Amino acid sequence: MKGLARAGDVDQVVHLFSDLMLSATSAGVPPSVLCYNTLLNALAEDGRAVEARRVFDGMLAAGVAPNASSFNILVKLYAWRTAEFHLAYDEIHAMRRHGLVPDVGTFSTLVTGLCRAGKLDEAWGVLDWMLQEGCRPMVHTYTPIVQGYCCQGRIEEATNLIGFMEEAGCPPNAVTYNVLIRALCDDARFDEVKQVLAEIESKGHKPSTVTYNIYMDALSKKGMAKEALKQFEVLQGKGLHPTAFTLSIILNCLCCNSRFSQAIPILERSAELNWCAAVVAYNTVMSRLCDMGRWPAVLELLANMIKKCIVPNTRTFNIFIHSLCIAEKLSVAKKLVYNQGFPANVVTYNTLIHSFYLSGEACEAESLFAYMTEIANIAPDEVTYTIMVDGLCRQGKFDKATNCFKESLKDKLSKDLLTTLLNRLARSDRNGNILVTFQEIERQGFVCGYNMIFEDTVRSICQVGFRQHIKMFNLQFLLDGMLGPGKEVYREARAHKGQGK
Hints:
Helices cover 73% and strands 0% of the residues. By secondary structure, it is mainly alpha-helical. Among the domains are: 1-96, Serine Threonine Protein Phosphatase 5, Tetratricopeptide repeat (Alpha Horseshoe); 103-207, Serine Threonine Protein Phosphatase 5, Tetratricopeptide repeat, CATH 1.25.40; 380-501. The protein is globular.
């Protein structure tokens, strides 16, 4: 049951427990509390609160006494999964009725849930409650509060809490420091990161590979690739072992500096160096090579990757498809997608459809769109619709483009897609299509943003020349059609005008 739960197959756990219940009933002995807890935890982790409650009540009805773990699972369910904190408190009080005492794990679980919900003051209240109960907080009790402060941008308070932990005889661990370092990195406060790293070492602790991964990743994302590479040397000098993520960061830094002569050999020698070169590392280098237009090198890396029995994922396939498109080998890319040799997704189709439009093969693009939606059964996203609308308008197929936009409204109203359509329609004096678009937006109930849409439409049509005297009648025609008699947006516009907007 634990193995199935770890694999995420909760239904199988439920089924197996049912078989166990039948065997136990025939033997006249109910399942143990450990078996009940295993099922309870699997359901709780899956967020199935009603079923978990039913199992717990069934355990009581079967005469099986719950232990502290049973209640801790329920506290975790209500504090982490459903955020029903009143029920979490109820379970803690119920423990005493069963002769059990809440432990540090019970309270720490509740504190973590409260911090995740941003209820830091209430979390401090739980700490006071713990002390009243004679239960001493541990590092995993304080760390969620440190993280809560960091999530709210209150880094100084997080730092002060870490100092308080030291004074209280509960020194922070690597996880606590990593939380603080991540927050400082997100805020680009790298000088303070160095101070924290020095502080960790002065206290006899050793930063972990995860710590340096956080630091190097932030430096890389801020364009400080050289500094990130220096920290990699520090990591190695401390005898720390790079992970797959470490390797991905370093490769990204090298690729950003176009140092492929160093990046590719690292991939090739990764096994020899005992580094974890996973699919993410290969994707990092292949993506950068693709951006540089070096599609033969992408193909070579893909071949080497497969030889090493590293299984490509969908991103790998998308990079390869993009490389083929850059190389203008669209027919090859299309065959790969149609043959389903790799797991294609909406990004794959977007890349290929866009490339066909750019190459002037509009019929191929429309055919691929039809295949994607009707055969492959992949739903288009906002990017797909934007590509299609823009491509159809470029061909002068404005009615088709308008219908495509209407189809997109079944998901949501995209401001970017609308802007693309309006700009194309306005440039071609397709006033009727603009009105149809507005009517469809209103018909489908997107009224909350009607004023914003109205203003953007006026702005779009003015930008393409409707402000010229000769076309002013077109603007007046559109305004009359969009506003119409008694439209709320007209009253809103007047109200804004009165406010000086």
